[in-house]
Amino acid sequence: MSFLDVRGLEPPQPMVKVAKALEELKEGEVLEVLGSRPFTHLLPRLQELGYSYELEEREEGYLLRIWRSGEPPSARSEEKFEINEETNVGKLLEKYPEALKVLIRYGFAPLKNPLLRKILPYTVSLKQAKRIKRMSDEKFEKMLDELRELTKQRR
Prior knowledge:
By secondary structure, the chain is an alpha+beta fold. It is built from seven helices and four strands. It has helices at residues 13-24, 42-48, 89-95, 99-105, 114-119, 126-133, 137-154, and strands at 2-5, 31-35, 51-58, 61-68. It has a four-stranded mixed beta sheet with strand order 1-2-4-3, with helices on one face.
């Protein structure tokens, strides 16, 4: 069993630490994570990635136990997709994998890690990522334009 204490860490650090720990999790092992918040954004992704979990509220915080449970389902929806500040980074990368190069070029280096790419992006919108990276409005708009250009190239 592995234990991780992510209390007091600012987003996205808890997700980064959990993703790295999951990379090393072997079949039959359990990862316990103690956090200040209830892991709301992480839980749906864990299921999609084939992990099972239990969440327990304790006096010292939220204890999340995670273990492997099988293969993740591959469900894709064909709904209208717009790229704007509210766009979920994970959904963007699902729909336009080539967006990864653009995001990395604009400083989102943690996305280079394959496991982080499966978990972390689903927890933030482009607007939240902008705030985390302290990106200027001008640079953000330029990035959005490049990302929107990807949708035009597919038509």
